Amino acid sequence: MRIRLTVPENTSSSLVEKLNAWEATITARDSSGSQLSFVCEIEPGFFRDCDILVRNLQGRMEILAVSVHFEGDTHVDDIADHVDLQPSLPTKGSADPIAQLSEKIQKQTISSAAPKKVEAKQNQCSTCSAVVGDAKEYREHFKSDWHKHNLKRKTRNLPPLTADECSADVNLGDSKSDLKDYSF
């Protein structure tokens, strides 16, 4: 990473010594008044140590670039060009690269030909202790009278009711037991 370090001139020698120990590359130096400013490229692993040192020296640090690459470094774009990042393992009795390639293609064809069973993700409502289907059904559940009723029960530290129990409770209008359970 590329950073700018500004420290008082009288403490700059200890900073330069530490940067050399961290194998940092100092790309620019500038002095203004009693302050020295260094622009350097440092390994990200030394960032915290460098920050602590600069603060102890009554200086300040600025991050100029997080990702700095040198010539010859591997970039993510270069890696994307490679299809198979793992080295190919030699197969039994086939030293010919063409035979190895055809075997790989056959394995890929066989594995991709098998139909994959796609399961819909099941969501669970923690208020009602019920498993609800996909995301659309899950959102609809929150709008239901069953969920709203169990939410009221939850605020009163009462256990949740099943859907049948809730509909029976609401349909019968058993208000006396509700008033006892929901005493204000």
From TrEMBL:
Domain U1-type: 120-154
Sequence ranges of Basic and acidic residues compositional bias: 175-184
GO molecular function annotation: nucleic acid binding; zinc ion binding
Family annotation (Gene3D superfamilies): 3.30.70.240, Classic Zinc Finger
Residue span of region Disordered: 157-184
Pfam (any one): SBDS_C
Record family assignment: Belongs to the SDO1/SBDS family.
Protein name (database record): U1-type domain-containing protein
Species of provenance: Linum tenue
